[in-house]
UniProtKB/TrEMBL annotation:
It holds the Pfam family adh_short. It comes from the Bacteria. GO terms for molecular function: oxidoreductase activity. This is SDR family oxidoreductase. InterPro entries: NAD(P)-bd_dom_sf, Sc_DH/Rdtase_CS, SDR_fam. Belongs to the short-chain dehydrogenases/reductases (SDR) family. The lineage of its organism: Bacteria, Pseudomonadati, Pseudomonadota, Alphaproteobacteria, Sphingomonadales. Keywords: Oxidoreductase.
Amino acid sequence: MGRHFVASLVGRGARVACLARPSAELDSMAEEFGDAALPISCDVADPHSVNRAVAEAAETLGGLDFLVNNAAIFHPFLLEDGRDEQVKDHLAINLAGPAWCMRAVIPHLRASKGQIVSISSESVRMPFPFLSLYAATKAGLETLSAAMRDELREDGIRVTVLRSGSVEGGTGGKDWDPDVTQAFYQTITRTGHAAFTGKAASPQSMADALISILSLPADINIDMIEVRAAAAAG
């Protein structure tokens, strides 16, 4: 969804700092969007990397108006079988990462009376087998956002959770273990989780939902919006 987020924001006149680990995809942001996109190498699991990247973004762009916490990983595994690295990475990227980003941007958003939007998952409402830790990190992100909403309200900083359903595309599953992946899909079909998810929505539709949140009048706040697929699974 990140690339569609950037395209929609740029299309409405925004300049967007894109923070991600080094990759050809990150480099291509400047090629596609020109000066409107500022790709910055950043590991959200590392607070020093986040602090450096946010400072660079604020200096280059002349301030910051919003933060979209979109970075996350999700690998299917049974917690019993999860490797130490899998558990640590989910906690570091999905939960600690947004916390580092929020902490770093607060002084800038206080100056601009800006917004924080964190992307969560429908799996918080119906945790999926094999994605138990992922769901737990997203639930933690929602709780963190609720607390930050009250911490920052007097500063004029609005905080929203965009709880996303299944979205088409993406490369999140390219490194999944084939045997575990097969077991995951067989299980969620049997348990009804696949039917709950429905037919995956367009990432552009999710980007439109983000734009709607960021376009709200400054005197109101959406605490959380859950945007899920309208169509049933085929």
